[in-house]
Backbone:
């Protein structure tokens, strides 16, 4: 078992578009296994290669609950070929420890990818943790981060400030949120367990 070093915001590697993988060799398998080990060690649901400083299109996800058997999925070169609906849910990110806020995602997706053997795979996910995690991790491969998809930017700024990822005044932000928050989220709320990926 080997653990990789996590990269945290604002590390440059998190903003780069990752490169396609074309060789499905022992080094790719080892990277996938090391990423799974690192994800489990950090209690994540998903992890993308840029989050460990490797700008390649590989990501791992396991949405099994704590007392369930592990169900790791390795996605190589994933592409969302269909998406529909909207779903708001709480998200965190291993590159922003402690930061949680609501993000809007598609409610249903179909993703095509290759497994570690290089075989083509297709997977559908709807309204669940897996659906959200796939979208969060694919964003990492594009150099996109969940901070640009917050439902409420003030809540995001408060979370970022509280955890040392942004400059700001916590009390001032709290006052602003109290003054402006209108509870008009009409989209369906998703699961209670937040995604951390
Ligand atoms: Zn993330």
Residues:
């Amino acid at each position: 078992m080997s653990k990789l070093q996590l990269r945290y915001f604002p590390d440059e590697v998190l903003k780069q578009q990752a490169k396609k993988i074309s060789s499905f060799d022992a080094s790719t398998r080892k990277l996938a296994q090391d990423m799974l080990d690192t994800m489990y060690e950090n209690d994540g649901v998903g992890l993308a290669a840029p989050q460990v400083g490797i700008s390649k299109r590989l990501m791992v996800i396991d949405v099994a609950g704590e007392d369930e058997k592990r169900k790791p999925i390795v996605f190589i070169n994933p592409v969302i070929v269909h998406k529909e609906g909207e779903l708001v849910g709480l998200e965190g990110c291993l590159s922003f420890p402690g930061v949680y806020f609501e993000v809007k995602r598609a409610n249903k997706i179909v993703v095509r990818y290759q497994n570690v053997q290089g075989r083509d795979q297709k997977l559908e996910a709807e309204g669940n943790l897996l659906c959200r995690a796939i979208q969060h991790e694919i964003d990492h491969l594009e150099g996109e981060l969940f901070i640009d998809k917050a439902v409420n930017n003030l809540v995001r700024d408060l979370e970022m400030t509280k955890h040392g990822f942004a400059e700001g005044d916590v009390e001032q932000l709290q006052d602003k949120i109290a003054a402006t928050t209108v509870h008009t989220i009409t989209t369906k709320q998703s699961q209670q367990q937040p995604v951390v990926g």
About this structure: The domain at 12-190 is CATH 3.90.45.10 (Peptide Deformylase). The pocket of zinc ion is lined by residues 93-95, 136, 140, 197 (CB under 6 Å).
